[in-house]
Amino acid sequence: xxxxxxxxxxxxxxxxxxxxxxxxxxxxxxxxxxxxxxxxxxxxxxxxxxxxxxxxxxxxxxxxxxxxxxxxxxxxxxxxxxxxxxxxxxxxxxxxxxxxxxxxxxxxxxxxxxxxxxxxxxxxxxxxxxxxxxxxxxxxxxxxxxxxxxxxxxxxxxxxxxxxxxxxxxxxxxxxxxxxxxxxxxxxxxxxxxxxxxxxxxxxx
Length: 205
Known about the structure:
Blueprint: H1 2-14, H2 22-26, H3 30-65, H4 70-96, H5 100-107, H6 110-125, H7 127-137, H8 148-162, H9 168-182, H10 187-204
């Protein structure tokens, strides 16, 4: 459903900017949500570009100070490649801003607003349990080590799976699509694997 697809994206982009208390969340308007989404995307792009700039500087410094040792040159090249990847991702994020007029238009629909807030409310009210479910599905990894965007995608998907009665494949597919759009290069594969494990655990219970 298009409305829920837009609602998921809006919830994902605004989740880190909106209040976690339910009563405060209820007071927010859809305009607040869109503003939070724009701010979140902007902050992420700035952070990526700052990190990329620092990586480029480190790579350049290592190249200038090395005595043409292969190990130093390899490390420098790796830093430069990481900086390029971060910059490309940041540019892609800026490109997503071109879709915001459509996002804003759809966000005015009452069913979009209702489901976006329902998602956020569920995540905030059940976060400890949701995080426990995710943690139990992680293998040799910890929630705190996940990228923020991946953690938020997983929380929204688990909220749908465990509390909102969304069909398993729908919730997983939507999360994977969000990850392809907003996560790292291979983030969607990781998201898919974790949610597959979550689905099996929930089914077993």
